[in-house]
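About this split. The held-out portion is used to measure sequence recovery: a designer receives only the C-alpha cells and must propose an amino acid at every position. Recovery is the fraction of positions where the proposal matches the reference. Here is one held-out target exactly as it appears in the evaluation file.
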C-alpha cells in the first residue's frame, strides 16, 4: 500500500511539471529523468507493472519531441516490465488472473511495431513481431494469438537477399509448427512446401559453378543445384521431414507435384533410388535417418504397427518436437485404424 501511495505522489508530481505554463514549455528532459529514476526504484521493489507505466510516460515524452528511437526503447522497456509482472503473478505465484498485464504487453508491443512501420523500418518491426509471437506461443502457449504476429513478421521480412530468405524460413518453421499444434494441417503442409521450394530455388545454379550436382525439376528439365550447407541444409531437411509426416497423417486428396515427389522418394524400395539421389533434401539428409524414414513410410503402407513403434524409438532422438508430435499422431491413427478393422471383422 505504501508503494502505491508513494508512487501516486511521485507520478503526480512529475506530471504536474509537464503541464504547460503561460508562455513557457515544460521541461521534458527533467521529466524523462525523473520517470526513469522512479521506474528503476519500482523495479527494485518488484512493482513491475507500475514501473512499466513510468516507461510508457517516458515514451510519451520522447514522442512529444520526435525522438523515435528513444520512444521505441521506452515502449520495449514497458513491455518487458509488464511481462515480468505477468510472470510473477501467474507462472511463479501460480495465481489465476485475467492476463491484464499480458494484454498490456501486447498493446505496448503493438504501439512499438506501429511506430517502426510508420518510419518504414521493416526489419525492426519484424523483429518486434517475432518477439511478441514467441512470447505468446512459447511462454504462454497462446498459439492462436501468436499466429497473426508470425505472419506479419514474415510479410515484413520478405526480401530478395539470401540471408533474409533464411530468416523468413526460420519464422515460417515456427508458424508451421503452430499450425500443426492448432490442427490446421493443410496450412502447415503449404508452409513446409514453400520452405523447401524457396531453399531449393536459392541453390539453383548456372552450369559454370562448382560443388554442384545435377537433378531434374518437376517439369523434367535438367537443372544444376548447389548442395545446401549449414543453416540452409538444416532448414531444408527439417521442412522436408515435417512435410513428409504431414502428408502421411493428413492424406490430402489433392497433392502438388512437389508433394507427390516427396512421397515417391521416401516410398522407394531401393536404398537410394535414382529419384532419391536427385532429390535435394535427401542430399543433405543423414543416410541412416533417410533409411529409417523410408522404412517408416513402408511400415505405414503395410499397416505394420509393431514395426512403427520400433522405428519411432530410433527416430525420436533425431527429430524435432513438432516432428515427434506428428510421429505420435500417425502411430495413434494406425493403432486406432487397426483396432477398428479388428472390431469390424468380428
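Reference sequence for scoring:
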Amino acid at each position: 500500500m505504501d508503494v502505491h501511495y508513494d508512487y501516486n505522489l511521485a507520478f503526480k508530481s512529475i506530471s504536474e511539471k509537464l503541464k504547460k505554463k503561460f508562455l513557457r514549455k515544460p521541461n521534458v528532459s527533467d521529466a524523462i529523468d525523473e520517470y526513469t529514476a522512479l521506474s528503476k526504484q519500482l523495479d527494485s521493489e518488484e512493482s513491475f507493472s507500475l514501473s512499466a507505466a513510468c516507461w510508457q510516460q517516458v515514451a510519451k515524452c520522447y514522442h512529444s519531441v520526435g525522438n523515435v528511437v528513444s520512444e521505441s526503447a521506452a515502449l520495449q522497456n514497458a513491455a518487458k516490465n509488464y511481462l515480468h509482472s505477468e510472470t510473477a503473478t501467474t507462472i511463479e505465484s501460480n495465481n489465476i488472473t485475467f492476463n491484464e498485464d499480458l494484454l498490456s504487453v501486447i498493446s505496448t508491443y503493438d504501439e512499438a511495431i506501429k511506430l517502426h512501420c510508420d518510419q518504414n523500418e521493416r526489419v525492426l518491426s519484424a523483429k518486434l513481431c517475432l518477439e511478441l509471437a514467441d512470447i505468446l506461443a512459447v511462454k504462454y502457449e497462446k498459439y492462436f494469438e501468436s499466429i497473426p504476429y508470425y505472419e506479419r513478421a514474415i510479410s515484413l521480412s520478405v526480401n530478395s537477399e539470401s540471408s533474409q530468405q533464411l530468416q523468413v524460413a526460420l519464422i515460417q518453421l515456427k508458424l508451421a509448427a503452430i499450425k500443426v499444434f492448432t490442427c490446421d494441417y493443410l496450412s502447415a503442409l503449404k508452409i513446409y512446401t514453400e520452405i523447401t521450394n524457396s531453399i531449393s530455388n536459392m541453390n539453383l545454379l548456372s552450369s559454370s559453378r562448382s560443388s554442384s550436382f545435377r537433378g531434374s525439376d518437376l517439369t523434367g528439365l535438367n537443372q544444376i543445384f548447389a548442395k545446401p550447407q549449414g543453416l540452409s541444409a538444416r532448414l531444408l531437411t527439417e521442412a522436408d521431414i515435417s512435410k513428409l509426416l504431414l502428408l502421411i497423417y493428413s492424406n490430402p486428396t489433392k497433392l502438388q507435384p512437389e508433394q507427390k515427389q516427396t512421397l515417391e522418394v521416401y516410398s522407394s524400395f531401393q536404398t537410394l533410388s535414382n529419384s532419391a539421389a536427385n532429390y535435394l533434401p535427401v542430399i543433405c539428409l543423414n543416410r541412416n535417418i533417410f533409411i529409417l524414414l523410408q522404412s517408416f513410410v513402408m511400415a505405414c503402407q503395410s499397416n505394420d504397427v509393431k514395426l512403427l513403434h520400433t522405428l519411432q524409438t530410433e527416430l525420436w532422438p533425431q527429430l524435432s518436437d513438432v516432428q515427434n508430435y506428428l510421429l505420435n499422431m500417425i502411430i495413434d491413427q494406425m493403432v486406432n485404424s487397426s483396432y477398428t478393422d479388428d472390431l469390424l471383422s468380428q
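Annotator remark: Residues 18 and 26 are 5 Å apart (CA to CA).
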